[in-house]
Specification:
Layout: H1 8-14, E1 20-24, H2 27-36, E2 41-43, E3 49-54, E4 57-63, E5 87-91, H3 95-105, E6 108-115, E7 120-126, E8 132-138
Parallel strand pairs: 1-4, 5-8
Antiparallel strand pairs: 2-3, 3-4, 6-7, 7-8
């Protein structure tokens, strides 16, 4: 399936497992963060929608306006960071390299890279929308 050209209804019918959808004030800034800092592949990037791919996982980015009639939009804060309490692990991405790219891009590194007792080297970086992304690699 070509993610650049697939029809919305065909894409929707193809999805399975767990889906991640992030409501964004600025879809293009969020897509640029995921591509530039985390190294994810971005497809269909527009002002209203984008797809980010990490392995087999698709992350959908929707602009607030596309959720105009959905009750979830009423729960999203206007000014505060949106991602409080949610953490998205991106396994297989070097946290040291991601933090260097984040700092170069002016992103907030909330937690610098560290070896954790649960067998991962990880960091936590805030996206422009305030979502917490944790690049992580397995320790030897």
């Amino acid at each position: 399936m070509d993610l650049q050209t697939v029809a919305a209804d065909e894409l929707g019918r193809s999805l399975s497992g767990v889906g991640v959808n992030l409501l964004c004030r600025d879809v293009q800034a969020m897509a640029a963060f995921l591509e530039g800092v985390m190294g994810l592949a971005i497809h269909r990037a527009s002002a209203d929608f984008a797809l980010a791919r990490h392995g087999a996982v698709l992350i959908q980015l929707h602009a607030d306006g596309t959720f105009g009639h959905h009750p979830l939009l009423a729960l999203v804060p206007e000014a505060a960071p949106r991602g409080g309490g949610a953490q998205f692990y991106l396994f297989g991405i070097d946290p040291d390299a991601a933090c260097a790219r984040a700092e170069a891009a002016g992103a907030v590194v909330l937690e610098t890279p560290a070896d954790k007792p649960h067998g991962l080297r990880e960091a936590t970086i805030l996206s422009p929308e305030g979502f917490a992304f944790s690049p992580a690699i397995a320790l030897p």
